[in-house]
Design a protein that fits this description.
By secondary structure, the chain is mostly helical. It is built from ten helices and two strands; from the N terminus they run H-H-H-E-E-H-H-H-H-H-H-H. The chain has a domain of about 170 residues. The protein has a two-stranded parallel sheet with strand order 1-2. The radius of gyration is 20 Å and the shape is globular. Bound molecules: zinc ion (ZN). The site of zinc ion (ZN) has 4 residues, from helix 5 and helix 8.
Length: about 260
């Protein structure tokens, strides 16, 4: 396939714009300029690397080899989407669901998922997790948390005292402001989930439909509500339904081919 299908380009632009608005909103709420924020992330990078190294050691301790079946499935997926498989470790984990850490890190796959999901569903979930890695989602949240901490220690003003008490549920006006900070983090996490659903779905209508069926199944099993980290299943389903119908109308996407971009 030559060039990017129109529907993919359109969603990518839309997501980039949405992110820009959200980032500006975040900086406004925190009262920092873009330059200060970039500086902060630069200065904290070495701490983040140390944090990542720790996780990596833990993974080696707790991780278990995956079945060959799954390894083959993952390799095929990486080949399909033109991704270097050396970038990510795939690790079997007893805990349900998958967990991941940022850039040089791992995707955990539970036995439960391997046993119950279809190959397309497993590939689609993998893609969603890869989206988190490619877009450095955990890294961003880590910097945001560190910024709250750093600002709380540094500032003697009102905002500083709010952030100092951030984890202690302060009352009154401080409580309201702390809620605003928490809301910023929640909004960013929800955006990240939507972006990675979209990122995965745009590779192929096959993956878009697979994610839809996963979330529909989960909606019938678990509570359908927003959490601190994830939007409700209904919201995620609605987003994917839009994408599916847009793909069905795009001649480059409707036949279910995998789009390399
Ligand atoms: Zn996710």
């Amino acid at each position: 396939m030559f060039g990017k299908p129109a529907v993919v380009a359109r969603y990518e632009t839309q997501l980039a714009n949405e992110w820009q608005i959200l980032e500006n909103e975040m900086l406004d709420t925190l009262g920092v300029s873009k330059a200060e924020w970039m500086d902060f992330m630069q200065n904290y990078r070495y701490k983040y690397d140390a944090f990542e190294d720790n996780l990596k050691r833990e993974e080696r301790r707790n991780g278990q080899p995956l079945s060959n079946n799954f390894k083959n499935l993952a390799l095929q997926l990486f080949q399909k989407i033109n991704m270097n498989p050396g970038k990510v470790d795939l690790i079997r984990n007893e805990s349900s669901g998958r967990r991941l850490h940022a850039s040089r890190s791992a995707i955990y796959v539970s036995e439960n998922k391997l046993a119950n999901d279809t190959p397309n569903e497993i590939e689609a979930s993998l893609l969603h997790e890869l989206g988190h890695i490619v877009n450095s989602d955990d890294e961003f949240i880590y910097f945001l948390e560190k910024f709250y901490e750093w600002y709380g220690k540094k500032s003697n003003g009102f905002l500083g005292s709010v952030i100092k008490n951030f984890y202690e549920k302060p009352a009154g006006t401080k409580g309201i402001t702390a809620k605003v900070f928490k809301a910023v983090r929640k909004k960013i996490r929800h955006f990240q989930e939507k972006r990675e659903d979209t990122w995965a779905a745009l590779y192929s209508i096959v993956y878009a439909r697979a994610l839809l069926s996963i979330y529909k199944r989960m909606r019938s099993k678990y509570k359908d509500r927003d959490s601190e980290t994830h939007p409700s299943f209904s919201k995620r389903i609605r987003n994917l339904q839009y994408i599916c119908s847009d793909m069905e109308n795009d001649p480059d996407m409707r036949d279910g081919q995998v789009c390399v971009r």
